[in-house]
Amino acid sequence: MIDTIIFVPGLYSKPNFRIKFIAQHYEIMKFLTPSDAEQAFYEAFEIGEINAMMTVWSKDEDITCIHPHGPRLIGRSAVEASWRGILNASIGLRFQLSDIREFVDQGLTIRILYENLWLPGEKAPRPAIIATNAYRYSKRGWNMVLHHASPAPQGDSENGGAALLH
Fold it and tell me: What is d(CA 150, CA 129) in angstroms, rounded to the nearest whole number?
């Protein structure tokens, strides 16, 4: 009996196949790096696969998710319910991640990035979303413990942008 399956980015040429495989084996999937977990997170988002999405998240209850303009969701039940609703309505999205910044400290990695999102049939991306994703290492590998996404202010850039609110 297999007790662990390791996520290997690029192992299969088609992300949909890889994510469906993860979804079928979600109870024993292990991510070796925060980047692997993040890749699986966005692939699950793109194809709308809830089991694969929740495989990325820590099994612990101390997880938090904040969707753009949304409340703070704490715990697996609240986080899963929110993703179930989002994924049911968002199949066909495409993401391109940019300007990724990573902070690493022993068992915790924080990645801050821009989500550039295309809706089905659109040729240009929607306004960017700034996301903060935090991953914690445990015996189960690297798993997400925080996803916080907010619309990027107009004119936002690496060296300045809109007026600060706090």
Answer: 6
Buried/exposed 122-145: b ≥16 CB within 10 Å, e otherwise: eeebeebbbbebbbbbeebbbbbb
Residue partners of 108: CB distance under 8 A and separation at least 6: 134, 135, 136, 137
Helix (H, G, I), strand (E, B) or coil at 150: strand
Residue with tokens 């590998």: 141
SS3 (DSSP) at 152: coil
Structure tokens at 61: 């209850």
Neighbour count for residue 154 (Cβ, 10 Å): 8
Q: pLDDT tens-digit profile of 102-146?
A: 999 999 999 999 999 998 888 888 999 999 999 999 998 999 999
